[in-house]
Amino acid sequence: MENTLYIKDNMDSPNYEVFYKDNIPSVDHPLHYHDFLEIYYHAEGDCDYIIDSRIYTLKHGDIVLINNQRLHRAVIKDMTKPYRRFVLWLEYNYLETLLGGKIEYNTMIGKESKTEIFRLPGQQSEEIESIFRKMCRESEAVDFASSYLQESYLSQLLLLFCRYSQNSQSVEETTFENDEMIQSIMDYIDQHYMEPITLDMIAQHFFMNKYHLMRKFKKHTRMTIMDYCKKRRLIIARNYLMEGARIQDIYKLSGFDDYSNFFRAFKSAYQMSPRDYKNYMIQSHNSTIQLAVDRDQINKKH
């Protein structure tokens, strides 16, 4: 599946997943987002990374921290060269289970973190890569010890990320042509999502030819302006859904013109209806809480 246009952006596991990907890419994926934390370790490849409208040129060993609902994508600049990376997906509830009460992780790697790229000295990045390799190896094992070892390595990774986030080298954003205009368009959509938005309206607002605007936006994001608008509205709709808003009201609150369009867009993005998605997230949250309770009871017995 790696060399197709399909993007896997939902977890099969209720808590975390880890991947090692090693290929010569044949496609450039568009902006996408997740409802969980993603940590990306860049092992090899000529690559930039976009988070919202910010662009970073990656080096070997760079760690990219992508908090939930941040639109992001890798920009592969040379598709003739290997592209190697490790990817960790982690639910926030499980992050709290592992680190909550131990350290103030939220400002280091959690939702309150201001850091998006860690650039570490060689020895530290090699240490991170070594633990990633161990996690991936155990993820393919099926014996009684594999899940416990995976969790042990995961805790080590997270603690090291927290430690290194305090003294990592800052990474400056790369300047792309017209990236300030792209940021302005994104900001405009974020501020006006409740209103009917058309390409003509945006072009008129920014005094630009709409076809020129379309090309520039798609070159930067690999999606159309209207697809970006839909993704932003779906993020807002998902937040209202999890806050308990009535499903029949959410489409209006998130800027969709009618319920049927909202329903189709939501089901296409999340592979389930809004009601089923809400029930799935509640069950996932309850499973994580039960896991923490069970762990505490086991620890007390020992």
Automatic annotation (TrEMBL):
Alphabetized UniProt keyword annotations: DNA-binding, Transcription, Transcription regulation
Lineage: Bacteria, Bacillati, Bacillota, Clostridia, Lachnospirales
The keyword Transcription is assigned to this record: yes
PROSITE patterns: HTH_ARAC_FAMILY_2
Regions crossing the membrane: none
GO MF annotation list: DNA-binding transcription factor activity; sequence-specific DNA binding
Presence of the UniProt keyword Cell cycle in the record: no
Positions of the HTH araC/xylS-type domain: 183-280
Pfam family, one: AraC_binding
UniProt cross-references to InterPro entries, sorted A to Z: AraC-bd, Homeodomain-like_sf, HTH-like, HTH_AraC, RmlC-like_jellyroll
Protein's organism: Lacrimispora xylanisolvens
Protein name, UniProt field: AraC family transcriptional regulator
Domain of life, per lineage: Bacteria
